[in-house]
């Protein structure tokens, strides 16, 4: 089985040929800060509400999932399901990651939703901070749209089932 969440399907096919029977998740690199949108992301373990986290995250439409540093994995305790996957990076490298969930998630004060999360080894920035990402699948689950001219997120008035 393969997870392929990038327009470069040929890349994922090459990766699959090299890593037969492994699960692959394509992860995009950090996006440019110009015109970027950040949001408050609240995450809570579905089975243990005492295990939660609130953090400013970059909205990265080139990423599929909510992606957090592996260093934060233990903050959520035992998840309902979790597995090790290979994450194919946009630069062609492959890294091990943990993928699991579900977590209750909320972006800013918009509608709550359930999300699976990718925990990936990340290098902290110059001041020791990590850059968590909110990917497009999380935005769809939350019913949120990008308002780029105003650099903000807005709640859609309906759930899109098309």
* Beta-strand residue percentage: 35-45%
What is the second-level CATH architecture of the domain at 31-80 and 99-155?
Beta Barrel
Poorly predicted spans: 1-22, 28-34
Alpha-carbon Rg, integer: 16 Å
Number of H- or I-type helical stretches: 2
Give me the CATH fold name of the domain at 31-80 and 99-155: Cathepsin D, subunit A, domain 1
The CATH class assignment of the domain at 31-80 and 99-155 is Mainly Beta
Instruction: Indicate the structural class.
Output: mainly beta
Tally of strands: 10
Major sheet characteristics? 8 strands, mixed
| Helix amount | 10-25%
Explain what you see:
The longest helix is centred in the N-terminal third of the chain and has 10 residues, at 9-18. This protein has two helices and ten strands; from the N terminus they run H-E-E-E-E-E-E-E-E-H-E-E. It is globular and about 35 Å long. The strands form two sheets. Strands 1, 2, 3, 4, 5, 6, 7 and 8 form an eight-stranded mixed beta sheet that branches. A two-stranded antiparallel sheet has the order 9-10. Helix content is 10%, strand content 40%. The protein is mostly beta strands and 162 residues long. Residues 1-22 and 28-34 have low confidence and may be disordered.
């Amino acid at each position: 089985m393969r997870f392929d969440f990038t327009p470069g399907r040929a890349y994922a096919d090459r990766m699959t040929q090299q890593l037969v029977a492994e699960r692959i998740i394509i992860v995009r690199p950090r996006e440019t800060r110009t015109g970027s949108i950040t949001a408050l992301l609240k995450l809570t373990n579905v089975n243990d509400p005492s295990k939660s986290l609130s953090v400013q995250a970059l909205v990265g439409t080139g990423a599929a999932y909510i992606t957090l540093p592996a260093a934060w994995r233990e903050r959520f305790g035992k998840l309902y399901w979790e597995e090790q996957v290979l994450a194919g990076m946009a630069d062609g490298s492959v890294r091990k990651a943990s993928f699991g969930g579900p977590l209750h998630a909320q972006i800013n004060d918009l509608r709550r939703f359930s999300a699976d999360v990718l925990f990936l080894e990340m290098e902290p920035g110059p001041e020791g901070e990590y850059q968590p990402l909110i990917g497009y699948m999380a935005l769809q689950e939350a019913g949120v749209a990008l308002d780029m001219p105003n650099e903000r997120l807005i709640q859609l008035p309906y759930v899109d089932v098309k």
